[in-house]
Amino acid sequence: MGRATTSFDPSPERGLSSHEVAARRSRHGANELPSRKQRTLLAIIGGVAREPMFLMLVAAGALYLALGDHGEALMLLGFVGVVMGITIVQERKTERVLDALRDLSSPRARVVRDGEVRLIAGREVVAGDLLLLEEGDRVAADAVVLAANDLSADESLLTGESQPVTKRAVEASESTAALEALQPGGDGLPIVYAGSMIVQGGATVRILATGLDTAMGRIGRALATIEEPEGPLQQQTGRLVRRLAVIGITVSIMAAALYLLTRGDPLHAFLAGLALAMSVLPEEFPVILTVFMAVGAWRISRRRVLTRRLSVIETLGAATVLCVDKTGTLTENRMTLVRIATLDGETAVTGGTLDRVSPSQRALIEGALLASELRPFDPMEKSLRIFAAATLPALPTEGRVLAHEYPLQASLMAMTHVWQQENAQGPAVIAVKGAPEAVVQLCALGEAERETIARQAQDMASDGLRVLGVARAEHAGPPWPQHPRQFEFAWLGLVAFADPLRPNVPAAIAECRAAGIRVVMITGDYAATARAIAREAGLPTEPLITGSEMAALGETVVRDRARRASIFARITPEQKLAIVNVLESGGDIVAMTGDGVNDAPALRAAHIGIAMGGRGTDVAREAAALVLLNDDFESIVAAVRLGRRIYMNLRKAMSYTLAVHVPIAGMALLPLLFGWPLALMPVHIVFLELIIDPACSIVFEAEPESRDTMRRRPRRADEPLFSGYTLGLSLAQGVIVLAVVAGLYAYWNVAEVEASAARTMAFTVLIAGNLGLIFANRSLSETIATTIRVSNASLWWVALGALAALGVILAWGPLRELFGFAPLSSVATGLCLIAGASTVVWLDGLKWLIARRR
After folding, report:
1. What's the pLDDT at 109?
2. Cα of 651 vs its chain's centroid, Å
């Protein structure tokens, strides 16, 4: 990482070549700072080694060594290595998934390389890169300003001062050394700094320093990820784990004391208490939550949606309202100029050009182009430039320079550009383009002319077209007025664009309706345009509320109408926050899309802020919880569907985990209470954990979504993970398996079956019952006969692997002795497996009875 060593040259460039970029990156490294969030392999191993389950396993192995049982000790410690290895691999995979998602959601940079504009990750820029900055961009590295247009930057991350500072273009006389000596925070500097945010204007800059050589690096500021507060699921899981841990430790101590008092063997009393503690400790719960959230984020990213905050995944399934932009989300954002209108009349545009252009039409096209950006990213401005290049003999920007710009404002929904001749001769030309009613207000027009324009705009909007008004003025020269209203504009006409609806939108909206999710369209377009698109998309066209109505009506009326509205038209970005607040105050869980700087407050306030990745600013991306890479409404619905699937599968995994601990804990405790030989020792519980861990984190995570996933009402946001139904079902399932295993074990002890044989049969029944619980919890309502037809390869790998491992233990003498088992005949083994598997009948019967009662 380092600084450019060449002398400074402010002349325009084609940017670096690919060869130069590779050489500089090889020499200086990536444009990044050391992260405090990285977890090395040693850190992961250290975290696993401090887990209570791991410490108890090591303690049990050491105790077996103290008892002289070296074979059992070595096997137990071997299992410790296996369990630790599985956990480390799992955590490492999760960490890689999160790292990949952080990289994808990092700030982007628009650079010029090999003469082409490219959008790359900020960490990929190198010293010497030519960077294009716009309002809302996060600056990737320290850079000198080559050309600027009314540029201001927020450098509060570096200086602590919230007031933006202005920037200017560098002068040829300024040296590189002088530029490097400048410090952030002053007005009028020709340099922008890494980590600052462009809040106004645009610029072309050249990278001077990257990574540790930036001002950010020199003062030791790391761009650390914001600490994410715990979500409701994390809080619920934490409370559950702490309560069960306290219960487990208390019961284990009492059980060990009971064993010591009744049998007088302190070492075996400690082993019995340790086995009970291991059987009760719910160490899987935090692992389940971590894996499901991380892998869930990865699954969502495959649908072109990036998760910036993992806690939002649990909120997706509770969304009740989706507030979406029309342009680019419901529509293809593929604008085409299809109609122009002057006061002389309207003309349809076919084939992307006009064969004959009247003087008034030519003035309209030139004015619209002059009011557009030089490097257009807006689809309408791109369409205008293509049309003008095909229609006009020469572009009106030739021979002119952009002298001043008035950006779009809430008080004036229009953009104004001031152009001067390159030789500074003659008056400046001012072009304005924006909402027709806003541009009309700037012009001195008669009543008849205003009525004609209003009728033309209404007709175009009724056909679903996006309509912009254009006007032109002249001015003697600087100084420029404070506001565009001070110019004397002459009306030029209207330009109208068609943006076709995405073909998948009607089906996606129908799916939302079936899922009990209300879709609300928010647009800056006319009400007539919004209604036309809504009708085509399958959305209700009423109620509709406009931005002017929101501003004029009282708060109570607005609140009542906004909660029922299907369309918000002529809405400013600032009004999005009011819409979010109104909907949330009514109890809705709101997902809101946005792309601009002014959308950031609404994105932050919404339960689920969704930034547009294709056309969105870095400000919007950083404020949002999700980033939509393809700006497609169907991707939002897919994310909601996946969020519901993740939550449902998470409940299944938690339900199974709680249920399976009941028979394990019961078989560790009941022999102590009734004076039977111990049925479970630490080695048996470790073997069961080798089945439970992959089942709860892999099998259930891979479960396909239920057939009715998008036919259910959204769940309550405050719904507990273990509702009364889920908790009761889990405990009832566990008690059924425990009743079968404990009943048979009691019978074998009464029948004076040898202790090792009774333990072997009970363990075999328990393994089969455990597998039955996995199958039963694939659905919390449907029977196994229904879910067995749903494919899940992970399920069969775990089930067959568990049975194969059990078969090896029972068949191989040395391993069988280490487990304290006795040889079983094939008939006895089969009967035990059938007895354990029979629990599924009871489990299905239980679900059937509960379903009837509900």
Report:
1. 84
2. 21
Over residues 698-717, the pLDDT tens digits come to 889 888 888 888 888 888 87
Which residue reads 């930036």 in tokens?
Answer: 214
Tokens of 287: 């692992």
CA dihedral sign, ordered 119, 121, 122, 126: negative
At 225 the pLDDT is 38
Task: Give the H or E element holding residue 166.
Answer: strand 165-166
Please report which helix (H) or strand (E) contains residue 175, including its range.
Answer: none
User: Hey, CA dihedral for 70, 75, 76, 81, is it positive or negative?
Assistant: positive
* Per CATH, domain 320-332+502-631 is 3.40.50.1000: yes
Quick one: pLDDT at residue 278? Answer: 67
pTM of the model: 0.71
DSSP E strands in 435-573: the ranges are 466-475, 490-498, 518-522, 544-546, 567-569
Domain with CATH 3.40.50.1000 in the chain: 320-332+502-631
Q: What percent of the chain has pLDDT over 70?
A: 82
How far apart are the two ends of the chain, measured CA to CA in Å? 65
CA pseudo-torsion sign 579, 581, 582, 586: positive
Domain 18-34+108-218: which topology? 2.70.150
Vertex 632 angle, CA 626 and 638, to 5°: 65
Q: Which residue has the tokens 């320290």?
A: 142
Helix axes 839-853, 826-837, angle to 10 degrees: 10
What pLDDT, on the 0 to 100 scale, is given for residue 12?
Answer: 45
Q: Give the pLDDT score at 737.
A: 92
CA-wise closest residue to 618 among 138, 102, 225: 138
Yes or no: domain 336-498 corresponds to CATH 3.40.50.150: no
Backbone angles phi, psi at 824, to 5 degrees: -120, 145
Q: Which residue ranges does the chain devote to CATH 1.20.1110.10?
A: 230-301+639-853
Cβ-in-10-Å burial (0-12, 13-18, 19+) of 362 comes to: middle
- 772-778-781-782 Cα dihedral, nearest 10 degrees: -80
The packing angle between helices 755-776 and 682-694, to 10°, is 20
Nearest to 664 by CA among 341, 315, 248, 368: 248
Q: Is the dihedral of CA 605, 609, 613, 618 positive or negative?
A: positive
Query: What's the CA gap between 292 and 489, in Å, rounded?
Result: 59
Domain covering 230-301+639-853, topology: Calcium-transporting ATPase, transmembrane domain (1.20.1110)
Residues in the chain: 854
Compute, in degrees rounded to 10, the torsion defined by CA atoms 300, 304, 308, 310: 0
Closest CA to 103 of 127, 122, 118, 117: 122
CA 483 to chain centre: 40
Distance CA 475, CA 56 (A): 83
Angle at alpha carbon of residue 151, lines to 145 and 152, rounded to 5°: 110
In one-letter notation, the amino acid at residue 540 is P
> Angle, nearest 10°, between helix axes 266-280 and 682-694?
10
543 prior amide bond cis, ω within 30? yes
Tally: H helices and E strands in the chain: 31, 22
* Residue-level pLDDT at 739: 93
- Which residue has tokens 């705009």? 457
- Higher confidence at residue 191 or residue 785? 191
CATH 2.70.150.10 intervals, the chain: 18-34+108-218
Closest CA to 525 of 323, 367, 327: 327
The predicted pLDDT at position 72 comes to 55
